[in-house]
Amino acid sequence: MYSFLLVLIYLAFISLGLPDSLLGSGWPVMHAELGVPVSYMGIVSMIISGGTIVSSLFSDRLTRKFSTRIVTVVSVFLTVIALFGFSFSNRFWMLIVFAIPYGLGAGAIDAALNNYIALHYKAKHMSWLHCFWGIGTIVSPFIMSYALANKTWNNGYRMVGFLQLAIAMLLLVTLPVWKVNKAKYGESGKSIGLLGALKIKGVPLLLTGFFAYCAAEATGMQWASTYFVEVKGISAERAAGFAALFYIGITAGRFISGFLTDRIGDRNMIRLGTGVLICGILALFLPIESYVAAEVSFLVIGFGCAPIYPCIIHATPQNFGPENSGAIIGIQMASAYVGSTFIPPLFGLLGNAISFSIMPVYLLIFFALMIFMVEMTFRITGRREKS
After folding, report:
1. Residue among 57, 119, 121 at smallest CA distance from 323
2. Under a CB-based contact definition with an 8 Å cutoff, are residues 166 and 15 in contact?
């Protein structure tokens, strides 16, 4: 039952990744059919992000009141409603409406499951959990591509909606399986809340570091294609394929990290990943005109990013106590969404004003801020444990 529950959690994280890459892959056709400017995708994305931030901040209170299993099932059903809502939308305002449950469902399940794994399972499972999220993000664009080639973008959302519904029904009928892990800290008692979590020494530093990491990761993911077009001078069609290298690097890296994390430890895995991704960034500075070196660089950067996100989260109960981890991880998720929502557009503005060739410098600044803040956090929590 213990292993079966783990399989269910992996499926739930695939369900979390499935909707994440649908909007971007279908928007070139969606905006034209809906009769809105291409820039309106930002409006939909911002509403989704707003929902994820809100539900992440309230996830600890919800989990303590209803349990992780109930929050997970309800969250997946919320995304099912959103996906089917998108599939029937023929006006832009309808996307706006269904973007609300889209975001609320994603944020709650993300925070709740991350905390559950951090409390009940080893570090390797956290890495593999996020690997399965990557699988979900990789599958969806292929489904949307098939839908666009054969029918309409609405069918792409509908197909993913049925897939999501199947996962939701499986999670619903297997609710009793979750009893295999008895409730621990974070699923009972009173939540310390946002202000209480921020008062814990080291938490603001960790949140800043997590914000910086997610800002850099999202920038690399969203602007890789533009970098290849503007800096390396290749066609947009080829660049779109190269952008997948970042996702492939992260997904493969998290699979491999799962075999190493328990032996090396969360802190050392974060250091190792940071060293690898910095090597990838420095390679972008090389005065090589060929785009092949840049391809390898983005693959290496993604590979280096792989262990950082899951290891920071998995270390949270140890750093701040399991009784506080639910609230802190919820705020971490919120800071992650803030970083991934607002910092990539800032890079776009700077790239237009200066040059998109500044990407290596931009990434280096945020990754440097991340490792500095995370190291400071570990030092503070390390001293607390010794005292």
Report:
1. 119
2. no
Which amino acid, residue 362?
Y
The pLDDT, as a whole number, for residue 181 is 67
* Domain parsing of the chain, residue ranges: 2-188, 195-386
In Å, how far are 228, 294, 355, 372 from 376, measured between CA atoms? 35, 32, 33, 6
- Determine the Cα–Cα distance for residues 274 and 267; give it in Å rounded to an integer: 11
Average pLDDT, the chain: 87
Cα dihedral 301/341/144/73 (nearest 10): 100
3-state helix, strand, coil in the chain (%, to 5): 85, 0, 15
Half-sphere exposure of 40 (CA within 13 A, CB side): 18
Spans of the chain, pLDDT less than 70: 1-2, 181-189, 236-237, 239-243, 383-387
Instruction: Please name the residue that has the structure tokens 């070139």.
Output: 28
CATH 1.10.240.10 is right for the domain spanning 2-188: no
Cβ–Cβ < 8 Å for 183, 323: no
Q: Which helix or strand (DSSP H or E) is residue 234 part of? A: none
Pick the closest to residue 71 from 321, 261, 326 (CA basis). Answer: 326
Integer Cα distance of 82 and 158 in angstroms:
10
Q: How far apart are CA 268 and CA 211, in angstroms?
A: 20
3-state secondary structure of 161: helix
Superfamily of 195-386 according to CATH: MFS general substrate transporter like domains (1.20.1250.20)
Contact (CB, 8 A) for 126 and 352: no
What is the model's pLDDT at position 112?
86
Q: Per-residue DSSP letters for 73-128?
A: HHHHHHHHHHHHHHHT--SHHHHHHHHHHHHHHHHHHHHHHHHHHHHHS-HHHHHH
- Quote the CA–CA distance of 41 and 37 in Å, as a whole number: 8
How confident is the model at residue 237, as a pLDDT? 59
